[in-house]
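We treat protein structure as text, and this decision shapes the records that our systems exchange. The tokens are whole numbers drawn from a learned vocabulary of local backbone shapes. Below, we set out a record of this kind in full and without editing:
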Amino acid sequence: MTPTITVDIGTTSIKLCAFDGDGSLLAAHRADTPTMTDGVGAVYDVAVLLAEIRGFVDGLDAATRRSVQRVAIAGVGESGGLVAPDLTLMSPMILWHDHRGAGLLAPLSDDDRARVYAVTGLPVNANYALSKVAWALGHADGDTDQALWLNVSEYVAARLTGRRWAEPSLASRTMALDLGTRRWSREVCALLRVDPGVFPILRPAAQGVAMDPETAREWGLDEVTVHVAGHDHMVGGVGADLQPGEMLDSTGTTEGILTLLDRPRRDAATAATRVAGGLACDGERYTLFASIPTGGSAFATLRTLLDREAADLVALVADAHRAWLAGDVDLDRLPLVLPRFRGGPPPEKDASARGAIAGIQTDTTSLELVLACFLGMVREFVDTWALFDRPLDRVKVIGPASANPLWLQLKADALGVPVSAAGFPEIVSRGAQALAHGVRLPWSASRPHDVQPDPRRTALIAAWGERTAARWDHLKRMPS
């Protein structure tokens, strides 16, 4: 590999890294993802986004800047905007969770929805880009004949190179790509009266484009190639060297569950689960993916709920972990927590869903509530994985959960398989560098530590799950 700057555009933060040719981290910076409202919903402040990236590059010493040969960009999957040939925006750069196009999906029949899944591998949902594209075309100022829809990562690449293109894993999150042919689907686009010509050519992650020479000079860079690495969770799968039979547990604000397939699954039974199919970032494989809206954000929810400082909550989590390992937890004393603090996962995929707590007693302690919350998150995690109907040998965890021993142990015990957690913090960024060079790095390079399941605790969780199944199902059926 060669020295690389990576950009990872997440839901709540941007991660910027500089790596040397061996993949060693030279510099890193994290900034809040710049967003704002346009009066309709949530959009990116693209000027601030580009300034953050430029500021990181400016902060590198001159020798490091001059050594950089590639820029690799990863990011969230369903965001985007209409971009003119001169790279001006003809629509807002819309965030992935913005549902401004939802009304355009409402008229679709059950047969239409089944056909969308059979072609694209995606359940009809306003998160995906196609409804945003239709909305943007209907609200654009001026002629959109030459405008192209770009994901936010693709837009950053376009601003650096002067060229517009799409990356396959991001394209497969638009609800407009035929997974079988790997081409834009005229049939599906027609359901929303969108001309598929609004989507750009596909370019794999390893095929970069030269940075605009004037931009390179302004940024203090020599000859640099710009690569769109792909959808952040899928790029994390490359960074984790994900293999068939393994699950990637990609934790951040949300929690992404990913596994690899040799061929796409678009049958009616899979469609009923509303698990998302897609294209892997490297090679010819396919993916199955589900997003659990409540991931690392649960920590902030607990802080607010318990009115605790971060350090105090970390100590409570550590105490709960020790109690769990020591066998000092009476599961029947714990409240039942449905952790849908930011919406629900498949098969409902209800963005308006909210959490619930049942079984609070007069003497319920804060430690029990913390343990119950993480146990509820793990239960929802296991329920979501069951939708995949795949064998499982090992879970690879990246992101904040890697540093949460309670969360890791509960997952290992609930699933009954080993959980291997990355010790290196920026797996998505490392995956982006690898993709830009067409290579894979071994999982051992991520300094993982393994957490083994305990058969006794696995049995305890299973029995508790049976005892509380009726209440759990009742909580999930509550109207939002």
In short: The mean pLDDT is 96.
